[in-house]
User: Fold these one by one.
Assistant:
Number 1:
Amino acid sequence: MALTIGLTGGIASGKSTVTKMIRELGIPVIDADQIARDVVKMGEEAYNQIIQAFGQEILQEDGEIDRAKLGAIVFHNEQERKKLNAIVHPAVRRRMLAEKEAYVQKGAKTVVLDIPLLFESELTHLVDKTIVVYVDDDVQLERLMKRNGFSKEEALARIQAQMPLREKVKKADAVIDNNGTIEETKQQLWQIFKRWNAL
Ligand SMILES: CC(C)(COP(=O)(O)OP(=O)(O)OC[C@H]1O[C@@H](n2cnc3c(N)ncnc32)[C@H](O)[C@@H]1O)[C@@H](O)C(=O)NCCC(=O)NCCS
Ligand SMILES: Nc1ncnc2c1ncn2[C@@H]1O[C@H](COP(=O)(O)OP(=O)(O)OP(=O)(O)O)[C@@H](O)[C@H]1O
């Protein structure tokens, strides 16, 4: 039986940083954000549904979805966000499960699902264990503004579209504190994986 681990956290809390470390250990990671990008490309079913729901104005000149434009809509309006989620999430879930099954078939001992909205979308039944990558509020805001070039207002809108990180910490089987150095984060990850016999 393969061990399936759900990795989550807040926006810019360090999930991608941790998944890079996990891949370096030779453990496969399925990235929900990447799949969410793939399922809305031109020609996909969700692409057509998004145009029907949000109109042609959210397209770029090349016909692909303008993510910045769509983001500006959905991160400032919960109703619009729910509409987008209802289109994108079922497709993401299907593809994630298929990818996980393929890794299990190939004999993977551990598979990690990196799902930013693991708790918000109530997807914990898909995994055996959960890890939350945690940072303090001020560190999260600072890293998000720096990485994406967002204003404070834009960054806070995104942070507030998610369950507070502190609540996610309460729900997690294990927590990685990513306020410190990359090396300190790596040590915590190793300890958790050793404890769960995931390596
Ligand atoms: C709104 C979109 C177009 C903005 O795209 P953009 O390239 O700017 O951001 P990206 O997709 O890289 O997401 C960055 C982070 O935003 C957060 N986020 C994304 N979507 C949501 C959402 N619906 N609710 C809350 N947080 C979200 C996540 O922490 C994610 O890691 C895009 O995020 C999207 O299509 N979202 C809906 C699908 C979704 O929920 N994806 C997240 C995991 S399945
Ligand atoms: N321990 C750390 N020390 C300093 N900077 C860090 C640390 N961990 C992550 N960062 C930086 O913080 C930013 C956010 O990290 P990362 O991209 O891994 O977050 P994420 O949770 O994957 O974000 P998203 O939810 O948007 O996908 C990045 O610019 C990253 O380089």
Number 2:
Amino acid sequence: MTSDGTIIVEHLSKSFGPVRAVDDLSFEVAPGRVTGFLGPNGAGKTTTLRMLLGLVRPTSGVATIGGEAYGQISRPLRTVGAALEAASFHPGRTALDHLRLYTPQVGVPDARASQVLELVGLSEAAHRRVGGFSLGMRQRLALATTLLGDPRVLLLDEPANGLDPEGIRWLRGFLRALAAEGRTILVSSHVLSEVEQTVDDVVIIARGRLAHASSLAELAGMARVQVRAVSPDAAGLTALVDRSAWTRTDAGDPRVADLWDVDAATVGAAAFAAGLELHELSSRDPGLEGLFLQLVGAVESAVA
Ligand SMILES: Nc1ncnc2c1ncn2[C@@H]1O[C@H](COP(=O)(O)OP(=O)(O)OP(=O)(O)O)[C@@H](O)[C@H]1O
């Protein structure tokens, strides 16, 4: 393992029979940052994480952590902490007993179990049976389990799932602090808004393909105002949009033009000059979530 915990995914593909779950996917995840791994249900996030962990063999391409495939890392549980599926806990075990099951595998002393419980704020519940835990407490316990080996890299599948606003706030602060220590943190989610305040970088996928990868700040800079022009003259509207080379997304009605790279005043002036009757001219800010859906939609319609 090289000194840093950079994750590199290169031309990664995985087919399950006719289903292309991951399709020529490439991206990098940098240490010292929290990266959101985003995409709608079925986009291929879990399959990608499973390939990173050597649990699924890629059809082609490679996925490495610190320059090595997971199977080559000498003490993998001390290097990579992963929480993939909704963790299942034996309901009769206490939180501490659950963690002590794993300490020998990870190769850390039993005392580490109490330390990680303290890190996730569960010390007071250490001797309580997990069967009585709330979903939020289970999520914290799953996170504590991933931290046993003090790993440099954390892969977390939907860690905010089931957390209340207070739990989400806590998770945000916790992950940010771990990243500030130089760790690589990859967090999957199917909604950008859930991780928007947590992540530094985003990797967005759809239909197994890369839709977008950048810092969150760059993505926010792309969130543009959308202008909607509605005319009873569909052919005239299309001719104006084409002539002006504006970017139009399909609104499902030829009399409606949703435009991304122009302001309302410019559209109004051009329509007036062309003698085109408009019944509506409005602008709206689709926000980050709207942009996310647009990026996903562009890939989905290209694949369909
Ligand atoms: N073992 C498998 N056998 C067959 N198909 C699979 C298998 N694992 C995943 N798939 C298919 O691959 C595609 C990607 O699934 P994956 O679970 O990776 O997506 P995801 O982005 O994690 O979705 P979700 O947010 O719903 O968990 C889906 O169409 C899924 O049905």
